[in-house]
Each structure stands twice: as C-alpha cells, then as structure tokens.
Amino acid sequence: MSKTIIIRNLIILPISIFVIIESKNYTDHANLLPTFCAIGVIIFSILDFFQNKDTYLIPNKFKLNSNNLRPYLIVLFSVIYVYLILFLGFFTSTALYFIFTSFFLGVRNYKSLFLTLIILIPLMYGFFVIFLKTNLPKGIII
Amino acid sequence: MYIFEALSYFENLFSLGVLLSLFIGVLIGLVIGAIPGLSPPMAIALLIPVSFNFPATEALIMMVSCYAAGMYGGSFSAILIRAPGTSASAATAIEGYELTKKGKAIQAIRISTFASVVGGLISGFVLLLLAPPLAEVALLFGPSEYFLMAILGLTAIASISFGHIFKGLIAGFFGIFLSTVGIDLYSGIPRFSFGSTSLSSGIGIMPAIVGLFAFAQGLELSLSKAQDTIGGNSKLSWNIWPKFEEIKKVKYSLFRGWGCGLILGIIPAAGGSIAQWIAYAWEIQKGKKGDQFGKGEIKGLAATEGSNNGSTGTSLIPMFTLGIPGGISAAVILGALVIHGLQPGLSLFKNNPQVVYTVIWGFLAANILMAVIAAFMARGMAHLTVMPKGLLAPLIIIFSIIGTYVNTNNVVDIWIMMTFGVVGYLMTKYNFSTGAALLGLILGPIAENGLRDLMVVSRGDPILYTLQRPVSICLILLTCIIIFYSARQFKWEKKNNKIIKR
Asked: Is pLDDT at B501 greater than 50 in this prediction?
C-alpha cells in the first residue's frame, strides 16, 4: 500500500473513531456536528480509497532524506526562534533566525543575505512599531 | 434603489484610511502575486493580522484590493519567465512567455494590463448591481438551508482540490470539526479541549489562516534549492498602458474573456482558475487561419487575462450574499469578514451598508490603482520574480510569526498557527485542500447553529422537514451534482493521465 493511505489510516481513522466516542459525553445536541463530521470523514475516506485504489495499492516506501526533512527542521528552528524572541528580543532574534535559516537552506550569497536583512529590519520596525504602534517583545538586547 | 444607496457611500472612498488601505492592499497584492509560488490567498492571509489595527471597512478594502492586484500581478511572472504567479495565470504563461521570447514582453504586459483592469472594473460593477438583490435570497433560508448551504460551500471548494473531491470533503469536514473545539455556547460544556484553557476558547480563524496559507507556503519553499529563482531577468519599460490599435486587434477576444470570467466567477468555486482555461479553449476554437496559438498569440493572452480578473468581482457575489465563497481567495476574505464581526447575507447589506458598499467601491478603485502602481513598479517586479527561495522562505515564516503575535500578544496563537502550518504543509503534500479546511472552520458555527435549530423546529425528524422545503431540495441537488460532476471529471482526467500522483 502507498504511504498516503498508511498515513490516512494511522491518523484520520483513529481520530474519527475517538471523536465519535468522545462526542457521546456531550449533551444538548453538542455531539451532533462532531459525530456528523467524523462519520463523514470515514465515509469519504472509503470513497476516496475506491476512487484511487489502483494508485493506493501500489507499494510505496517512505524516502527519508535531508531534503524531505528540511521543512520539519525549519519548524524546529522556528520554535527556537519564538523562544528566542521572548529572551533576546524581537529584532536580535529575527536577525539571527534569518541568517541561520537562509544559510541552512543553502544561501551563500552573503551580499544579498545581509542586504535583505538591512532592508528588512528597519522596514519591520517602521511598519510594526512606528506605523501600527504594536509592542514587539523586548528581551535582554532589543 | 440599490444603486442610489451605493452611490451615497462613494464619498467614503476618499478618506485617508481607505486610501491608505487601498494602497497597501494593491502594493502587497502586486508584489506577492508577481512572485511565483506565492498566491493571493497567502497575501490576504498575511494581511489579516495587520488588518486588526484598521476598522472593518478599511481592513476589507485592503483584502479585496490585494485580491484584485494579486490576480493581475500573477501575469507578470507568467509572461516574463513562464512561471505563473497564481493558478489563474497558468494559461497566460503559454502565450505570454512565447511573446516574451519573441521580444514582445512589453506588448503582452500592456494587453494584460488593459484586459485585467477593464475586466476587474466590469466585474466590480456587476458585483455592485447584483449583490444587493441577491442578498434578498437569503431571506428564504431557514435552519436546514443554513446547514445545507455550509455543506454546499464545502463541496464547491472541495471540488477544485486537484480533482480529488473526497479528499477535499475530508479536509472540509476536518475544518468543521475544528470549529467545534472549545466551550459549547448552548450547553457550556468544553468540547475536545482536554483540560487546556487555551483550547477552551476555541481555535481562532486568524492563526489558522496564516498557518494554512503563509507558514505552510514557507515550508513548501524550503524544499527548493536556495538559489532557485525560477527564471532569468527581464527589463521592462514603464509604459504599460496599451495603444488603441493593440486593443482594437483583440477586442472580441477581450469580450469573450470578460464574459467567461463574469459568469464563472459567480459560480461557487469555479473562479479565475477555471475561467481562464475555458476562455482560452473558446479563443482557440474561434481562431482564424494564421493565428499562432501556443506560439505567442496575443488574442489568447487577452482572453485569459480578461477572464481571470473578470471573475474577481463576481466571485465576491456569493460570498457577500450567501456566505459561499467563489474561490479560495474569497474564502480567506470571508474569514476576515467574520473576524471583524460581520455576517454575510442580507443583514450585511441592511445593518452595515456603509461597510459593504464602501468595500465594493474600494474594489473598483483598486482595479484602477493597480495599473498606476504597476506602471511604476514594472521594472522592479521583473527583479522580484527572481528572488532566491532561500531568502523568501524565512521571510514568509518571520512575517507569519510576527503577524500572528502582534494581533493578540499571545504566544499560544503562534503555536496554533505553526501547528496549522505543519498540517497545511502535509495537506498540500498529500492533495488535501487547505482551502476546504479553512472554509470548514469558518462555516462550522453556521452549520452547527443550523443543525441545532433544525433539530428543534423539525421536532426530531430533520430529514422529513428538510425534504418538505424546496430551497433545501435545490441545495441538496446542487451538492450532489457537484460531487457527481467532480468524480466524473476526475475519472476523465485520470484516464487522460492529467492527475498528479504523489
């Protein structure tokens, strides 16, 4: 079976069954819509399987390589970035995140990297702090 | 009568706030629309957090301007580097790029500008004239119709998800389910919050929109090579307004394109993406001996560009009047409408005429302003289309995070946004429509209220009650037709190997 259908079976179906069971605890018709959605998802999953069964039945192995992992690593960097914002302050962490992530993605043209940063930071300051008057997080630096 | 009421709000267009919103919306729409891979829904999603600092009228004007300009901006990269900035510019790329190769890039841009601006203006006037009377239709709606309308809206959006309608419906129902998370207002019971106080207040539409469209796009771009820039560099003259002779040569193509756009825009979920191909096919069918379709035929370009911008205004008609968006961009604008405390339908026209009419006037003004701004930005835009993806991806992520944070100053919203981003990335990867999921989240409360009221008024027999109402039967039939048609179309496309297998 293909990876798509395995992912679907492992994620969607147990969640739908859980929603149906959990919804039974809700009163005053609060269970109606979640149950309706869960049953709908199960039915459409089955219909989709039959619509695409020739594709889904072809064995398809997971291919894990550095390129496929990139988006997930970017998410990890973004989580660290959010914590850094609260610790170092918005502008310092944004500069660090931008340089590090661009470098990670393979940018080696330092001129364009720093030029973008030089334009980006004052632009964000002008837009969010001066124009919109929002309070961006301030850490131990700026 | 409606037109006189609409005219009375025309002067609102000249306030400083409205003009500023117009300018921001058009500028961002043009820039993002011109960058291949970045779509108008993403641009609108990024504007939502910013729009919180503006009143509802200005916020919505910013978004409709961004929508119109984004659709037009997509043609720049389509013509210059054969990389459509939006899905609605895909057909433009065929003839546009061939014209560029022949050294006629500026001529192609000129025709594209004229077709887009005039198409957008006609579409805007149709919106102004048809939306108010159509809103009266909402009066025929009872609980069953509201519930069925939500399902119809979902089905319509799902039908354009890569031809996989059932995957689109799964995504839509997932979105509806997410709308039920949090304290139930009828019973006071927290649903699916697992004891978390953050989840008890429900899932916000804003972090969901930014996550599904902007953050997910950033992750998608990170897969490409950092130096990837899609294509080469082109220089443009600033004179992008066409000559009379050029227009005369393609006048019938323009009319056919505008006609396709106007009609298909009004049909839920059809929109510019479908209109452009129908207009292009029609143009080829009407072609004369000597026409060079596929090799740089200006008539083909005029038809496709006229059709995609011709659909922008009319795709807002079902959104304003019935709450059924005409496409993904309209679905995101619908989200913004709800975030600003406005409900689509007759009440919008009765209780907030100053908002809705000013927004429509704003849409018309945006279509003119986009040509003026594009004339000055044309050279710069040619360079923007070659920005390395390695710089673009972190930029989008930074704006997604900060945009979400400045709205509520709550870090939890960032986590929710990022979760939606990962979910959106995976959904796109496996052909599940993020637009349908978003629409489900927006339409969820309407569907739930309709379903609950239906249970009360039908005294426990909702099916019998629904089948006694003609409007409900029409909505059920329409939903079935869309599912049947989409499944058939999928079969046809699969037979002809047009479905992308992932």
From this structure: no
Give the closest-approach CA distance of A1 to chain B in angstroms. 13
Residue A140 forms part of a structural domain: no
Residue B312: count other Cβ atoms within 10 Å of its Cβ.
Answer: 34
Question: What confidence category does residue B441 fall into, taking pLDDT thresholds of 50, 70 and 90?
Answer: confident
Q: Determine which helix (DSSP H) or strand (DSSP E) holds B381, and give its type and residue range.
A: helix B353-384
Residue B297: its pLDDT value, please?
86
Global ipTM:
0.91
Selecting from A32, A51, A124 the residue whose C-beta is nearest the C-beta of B451 gives A32
How far off is chain A from B256, nearest CA to CA, in Å?
A: 36
Mark whether A42 and A78 lie in a shared domain: no
For an interface test with B, the pick among A66, A70, A72, A74 (most B C-beta atoms closer than 10 Å) comes out as: A74
Domains: count for chain A: 2
Among the residue ranges B117-121, B151-155, B228-232, B446-450, the one predicted with the least confidence is B228-232
> Is the separation of the CB atoms in B70 and B43 below 8 Å?
yes
Is the residue at A138 inside a domain?
no
Give tens-digit pLDDT for B173-189: 999 999 999 888 788 88
Distance, in Å, from the CA atom of A45 to the CA atom of B171, rounded to the nearest integer, reads 11
Asked if residue A72 and residue A52 are part of one domain, the reply reads: no
Chain A residues whose CB is inside 8 A of the B452 CB are 29, 32
Based on the domain organization, do A41 and A72 belong to the same domain?
no
Same-domain status, A77 and A122: yes
Asked whether residue A137 is assigned to any structural domain, the reply reads: no
Q: Which residues on adjacent β-strands are paired with residue B183?
A: B190
Cα B198 to Cα A86, B402, B497: the distances in Å are 19, 19, 46
Residue A9, chain B, CB below 8 Å: the answer is no
**Interface mutation vs chain B, best among A15, A31, A44, A114, most B CBs within 10 Å:** A44
Q: Are A121 and A94 found together in one domain?
A: yes
Domain of A94 in residue numbering reads as: 66-131
pTM value > 0.80: no
